[in-house]
Amino acid sequence: MASSTAIDILRISQTYTQYTSRIILIIGIIGNFLNIFVFTNFKAFRNNQCALYFVTESISNICQLIIYFVIYALVTSDGIDPGNSILFWCKFRATMIPLCTIISFSIICFSACDQYLSTNLHFNLRKLSTIKLAQILIFTAIVISILHAIPFCIFLEIRASRCSVFNPIMSQYLSFFYYPILSGLLPIFIASLFSILAYRNVRRIVRRQIPIVRRRLDRQLTAMVLIRVITFVILTSPYAIQRMYTYIAKIDPSNLFPYAINILVGGIISSFFNLNYAISFYIFMASSSRFRRQINLPFTDDTVGLYTSSMSLMANAMEFTAECYVVESLLQSTLECVFNSSCLSTVMEFFLDTYLTNIKRLDANRTQYPLQTIIFTFVNN
């Protein structure tokens, strides 16, 4: 009777993982590609280190989701896993999963730390937040993740039709450091600490004399990082505990009923953990009304002109970019309009008081800057 119940539980677990992996893959691929599209096309995010972290995380998430989907898709209807019989697949999948995991978790921590630095009241800390530092940290995380994945490739073995780590030292490393610390408490602590500190900085950001566009961007990115970290903590903690228990308890597959229960619980927890790689775009949408407006802007970013709040074209204006707010439209546009009489008069008509009539176009021959220079460049410097 117990054996029959255990087999039913294993079938339920297999069916559950097959369907959830497909759903998570679909929403994850769509969400991560939209993240990449928005953060690389919207001008306010260009050359922003936090946006670079989001893009890198999305790329890593796509790789992770594809690997998870292939793992579940290759399992036959009879529950036969080729990873338990093909050594290459056993080693490859077990190497790629921690590699992508460490990269994604590192990027989450880096983005939280960056927001703390970029919103800090102290200039010496703020100047540490640079795109160059972000690139160095991302490269370092990738290299370290690759080096860290090498032992997985070495110590993974197939014994008794089971792909696992049988080396006692590596098993202890997984049980007492990798799952509870490296992919559990450590990134959770770092990301939580610095996102809370960044949120505190943003609440005091009004004291700093910075452009309103930069202030709004800092608030938006900090809110997005904070909600991302909260979901990360909620989804990661149970998985780290469950994986640590699995390696410590070492449940014998021959003891079918406890083994089946552990597989079912692990499958459910893993599905929620895998949401880490799929839902960042959707939580950004839910947490930021400004981000929801920005989603539409890459589709109109190449259309120059003046727009209403409903994105209806009011007038054509040379290189006057559509953004969320009027001041952002000005600051994210190029200098071309101020050197063109027709364009400048159009802008004056819509955005300046009627008594400001002496503003004339600038002479393109008397400037050291290219006409394609974005106005925000001057304000930011």
From TrEMBL:
Membrane topology of this protein: Multi-pass membrane protein
GO molecular function: G protein-coupled receptor activity
Domain of life: Eukaryota
Subcellular location(s) of the protein: Membrane
GO CC field: plasma membrane
Pfam families: 7tm_1
First-listed, main subcellular location of the protein, grouped into a coarse class: membrane
Keywords: G-protein coupled receptor, Membrane, Receptor, Transducer, Transmembrane, Transmembrane helix
The G-protein coupled receptors family 1 profile domain, residue ranges: 31-284
Transmembrane segments: 19-39, 51-75, 95-113, 133-158, 178-200, 221-241, 261-284
The protein's name: G-protein coupled receptors family 1 profile domain-containing protein
Record lineage: Eukaryota, Metazoa, Spiralia, Gnathifera, Rotifera
